[in-house]
Amino acid sequence: MTPEETTRPVSPQQERLIDQDQVRHIAYLIRLALTDEEADTFSRQLSTIVDYFDRLAEVDVAGVPAYHQQPMRRAQLRPDVAQPSMARDDFLANAPQHQDGYIRVPVVLDVADDGGETLSAATDEGRSGDESA
Amino acid sequence: MAYGTTGHRGRPVKGDAMNTTTYEPVIGMEIHAELRTASKMFCGCPVVDTTVAPPNTAICPVCTGLPGAMPVVNQRAVEQAMMVGLALGCTINAHTSFSRKNYFYPDLPKGYQISQYDEPIAVNGWLDVVDDAGRTIRVGIRRAHMEEDTAKLFHLPATHVEGAAYTLIDFNRSSVPLLEIVSEPDMHSVSAAYVYANKIREILRYLGVNSGDMEKGVLRFEANVSVRPAGTTTLGTRTEIKNLNSFRTLVRAVEYEIDRQIRVLEAGGTILQETLGWDELNGTTYSQRSKEHAHDYRYFPEPDLPPLAIDDAWIEEVRATLPELPDAKASRFAEVLGLPENDTRILVGDRALADYFEAATAAYAGLPAAISKWVVGELSYLMNRDGVTVDAVRVEPAALAGLVKLLDKGVINQNSAKDVLGTMFETGKQPDEIVKERGLVQIADQDALSLIADQVLAEHPDEVQAYLEGKETLLQWFMGQVMRATRGRAQPQTVLQLLREKLEGRR
Amino acid sequence: MNLHELTVHEAHVLLQGGEITAVELTQAVLDRIREVDPQIRAYVTVCEEDALREAAAADDRLRSGDGVTPLTGVPYGVKDCLSTNGVRTTCSSRILEDYVPRYDATVIQRLRDAGAVLVGKHNMDEFGMGSSCENSAFFATHNPWDLDCVPGGSSGGSAAAVAAEMGLFALGEDTGGSVRMPAGFCGVTGLKPTYGRVSRYGLIALASSFDSIGPFTHDVRDAALVLNAIAGRDPRDSTSVAAPVPDYAVALRTDLRGVKLGLPVEYFARGLEPGVEAALRQAVAELEGLGAEVHEVSLPHTAYAIPIYYLILTAEASANLARFDGVRFGLSYPPLDSPEVVDIIERYLQTRERGFGDEVKRRIMLGTFALSAGYYDAYYLQAQRVRTLLRQDFERAFEQVDALIAPISPTPAFRLGEKIDDPLQMYLSDIHVVAANPGGVCSLAVPCGLSEGLPVGMQIVGPPLAEAEIFGIGAAYQAATEWHTARPAIGAAR
User: C305-320 and C358-371 helices cross at what angle (nearest 10)?
Assistant: First the structure.
């Protein structure tokens, strides 16, 4: 072992309930960047927590339904009546970036995924300034 | 359009003439339909035409996913979903609930979509369709569930003026009610998929829950495609083709994909289960498997919405509002009203036109077939010519019926009727008014017509001679002359008969 | 008379009688904030101008007599997770540091309608995740009884504000003890109403199935007055209950004859610090003296309350916090005027990495794990099933007794920084309070003693929608005791 490796006790990776790869996978699912150190720390902490939570498995839940709220009925639904929109300026006031009434975000790489429209520069011109502010 | 029949043309495996495998396509479809409600699925924002409305002018904290906002279910959206479920023979679940479908994308403001997962509103229905080979296919409807639409994205490419590529987002469409209709993989040809999608569209239009306007994006198709050796029952690996937003791309993409899969299998390869897009320019499907991990949607029950209890009384109330559906209407038109098949097909395919036709027959119950002939014939011709829709046409159904009655009773002849209709179409006037004004009452009096016929024959001795010598087509010409003399009002059958008699009499 | 010391009901009498004005009262509270908040640090935002304007409007109302309620002209603050129109709302997180909502939460609207005066937004554990207010991304709040100690969490700022008389009442929010714990640590009265009793519209959600907005006050009577104003069905919140709202203030009583109280054995089993145990025992004796019958009851699934609570909480929170992505509001990283161009995914990753603190990250990862493919059944679903058993525990107990008496915390307020580095240990210290939210019950925290100069509180737990009953018991207790009248001397040694 190198000197660096001996300075901090390390739980054997393969024995942890939630290893670093899994932590990275989970973090990516919720779009959280992680440093290597964080991945290791969270792996350790989450493993400890989940290990404690595993005691839930000892409860006999045969025939016990998952909790759900009291159902709502037709009368509690919203009547289909249109209400005025929020003022666009109020909405855009908090936006990090906006343009011509749209929210603007940096490039979306997996464009094909969504059925969104790809505009050429020419149609882009047609689009801006087409509505009253 | 012929789309090929079941049992996609088998091609022999290279080099082995004895080993010909015929492959059968297996197709399932998911159709997303925007519901035609006044307000959105989970908030009171108006549902607007997103191709026209200025961006972000139909929004609120709920549909833009602002912190603290909460969803409230639109009652009418639930009812419209029930209508579709009932029209497709589904069971409406007495207990239905919403779930969160979690993933990140800029068109999804909350970072999850409220959808339905394990307790959808409608299950286990079916739809009978007829493919272009005349076969009836029963397509199972696995489920129909409610969810909210996403915002609209516009991708701008990099330019040296603006710099890097970027994306604009309009939330007007966010949270518009969507109904997702999922079929069983019961279609085995492109034709079946086409007619199925078409029939779903027709039913949605009939129910008034969707305009069917593909260009506005209110109806979107996805197709799941796999192939298997004909005669086997095991399903092959399937691919999912997304964002097919017209019938044309549906047909082209499914056809291409079936071919592609067969080619892969015949070359000894395997099909990868993946999501595909359709490249219209190059006419191919392409993999959308991104470099990210596969989606794990982590569905769980939506805690902001209790489950919804639907009682039988509500279901029956909704069922009572269902209009007559296309199949029932087609049967009735053909069997009860005796309409010819072509007329039935055209009327059933256009509910507004069918309603117009029925209003006309209500005014004059004489011969429905006579009325339908005019509706799908001359009237439709005029409407198409001038781009006038059924709601805007100036000819009232009762007026059209009146015209047919006049023709029926011999007051006017066929030519005049066409003429009168033309005037009715321009002016909206009643047929008898026009007939009177322009003196179009048919001349049927034998003596009067006889006189005119004699006159015509007397004025054209050469033609008479030519006729007697064998040029019998001149009969039509003589008829034309009589018509001219009577300004088109002569009753054709009588004229014909008189001319024949007189001409023969001169032999 | 120091106006900032008044209770709500005392202030109402003086305001209605014209002896003081709302502007005077509000100014007194603002002065008090200026005087002691530098030491307490309860406030993230103080809205001085808006408050004085609202106070002036309240004075108009009081003069005309039209639409006067017990809260008209009364200054209050709210936990910084409630949306306030035009006033910064941060959840004590960097990701919302500059976020200004353009709408009011329903409870805020109702308090405005009642004429109450909003003076500011209170510090909290980031996104409600914590029990000490030390997880705020901005600064820690200090306990007014001992500035070296925590006020409790996650509504620590709100509890401390009321204890230090920087507002006559406050609104906090309790997901798993976040009102009751700081109420206990700060020696004030705090209510976790039944889930659905108060609308959540406009509350920045933590755990949608558990979040319950509730008041901090100096006594039960004030709590009843506040609940009167904020409770009731809201068409914007599909989970808000339609049950009618009684006048909670008339339910107050002075004796407990005929009332049956239960002590859950699992809650008194072990681990209570001697001072806490003594205070609780004395309180129980007091309640018996008022005529109540005290029995032992059992809540057998108590041992599972922590996993149930944390699995469901973190699962829901992981989805609720997905909207913080730098697209429509809040922090967006890298800064958009920087030359660095990243794609949208990279922006999500970096914004959330920078915007969320460690506890938030830990919990949303835990929640994601609990929902993920292959683990959903064993964790999230299992938790929801055992939750049904937990609820049945309470139902069975309430067949025998009218209310439960329980501790709030094994110890009084601990020292700042003493926070154990082991997250699991932090979770386990919530054992007395976490069951109420998944359990679907209501719970009132009232002060019942001091341990080495630090407040000790007890919970009066009632069945769903039994706020009137638990208020009655709490009021009787407060009529016979004086713990709720004690006020800290800020900065003095214990």
Answer: 100
What's the gap in Å between the CA of A33 and the closest CA on chain B? 14
Alpha carbon distances (Å) from B246 to A49, B217, B410, B427: 51, 9, 48, 38
Just give the CATH number of B446-505. 1.10.10.410
B67–C344 C-beta distance less than 8 A: no
Name the DSSP letter for residue A14. Answer: G
Cα separation of C160 and C216, whole Å? 10
Residue of B37, B119, B168, B243 to mutate when probing chain A, most A C-beta within 10 A: B168
| H-type alpha helices, C128-262 | 156-163, 180-186, 220-230
B276 closest CA partner among B320, B321, B317, B222: B222
Q: For residue B298, give the nearest of C200, C239, C372 by CB distance.
A: C372
Amino acid type, C366: L
Residue C15 half-sphere exposure toward CB, CA atoms < 13 A: 33
Beta bridge pairs of residue A118: B155
SS3 label, residue C279? helix
CA distance C196 to A44: 37
State how far the alpha carbon of C179 is from the alpha carbons of A53, B146, C106, C170, C405, in Å. 25, 37, 19, 10, 17
In this complex, the residue of B109, B292, B305 whose CB is nearest that of residue C328 is: B109
Residue C204: Cβ-neighbour burial (10 angstroms; 0-12, 13-18, 19+)? buried
Inter-residue contact B204 to B181 (CB < 8 Å): no
How far, CA to CA in Å, does B405 sit from each of B365, C96, C168?
10, 75, 85
CATH code 1.10.10.410 region(s) in chain B: 446-505
Nearest to C212 by CA among C3, C47, C443, C366: C443
- For residue B126, the tally of other CB atoms under 10 A from its CB is 14
Residue B218 burial (10 A CB sphere; 0-12, 13-18, 19+): buried
- C-alpha–C-alpha distance, residues A57 and C382, integer Å: 7
Phi, psi at residue B293, to the nearest 5°? Answer: -70, 160
CA distance A14 to chain C (A): 18
Q: Provide the CB-side half-sphere exposure for C91 (13 A, CA).
A: 28
Structure tokens at A81: 């009546």
Q: What is the ipTM of this complex?
A: 0.95
Distance in angstroms (rounded) separating the CA atoms of residues A128 and B55: 11
pLDDT in tens, chain C (494 residues): 799 999 999 999 999 999 999 999 999 999 999 999 999 999 999 999 999 999 999 999 999 999 999 999 999 999 999 999 999 999 999 999 999 999 999 999 999 999 999 999 999 999 999 999 999 999 999 999 999 999 999 999 999 999 999 999 999 999 999 999 999 999 999 999 999 999 999 999 999 999 999 999 999 999 999 999 999 999 999 999 999 999 999 978 889 999 999 999 999 987 899 999 999 999 999 999 999 999 999 999 999 999 999 999 999 999 999 999 999 999 999 887 777 778 899 999 999 999 999 999 999 999 999 999 999 999 999 999 999 999 999 999 999 999 999 999 999 999 998 876 778 888 888 999 999 999 999 999 999 999 999 999 999 999 999 999 999 999 999 999 999 999 999 987 76
Please name every residue paired with B178 in a beta bridge, in sequence order, or none if there are none: B34, B147
Separation of alpha carbons C195 and C215, rounded Å: 14
Predicted TM-score (pTM) of this structure: 0.88
E strand or H helix that includes residue B280: none
Question: φ and ψ at C457, to 5 degrees?
Answer: -125, 165
The span from the CA of B453 to the CA of B242, in Å, is 70
CB contact under 8 A, A66 and C381: yes
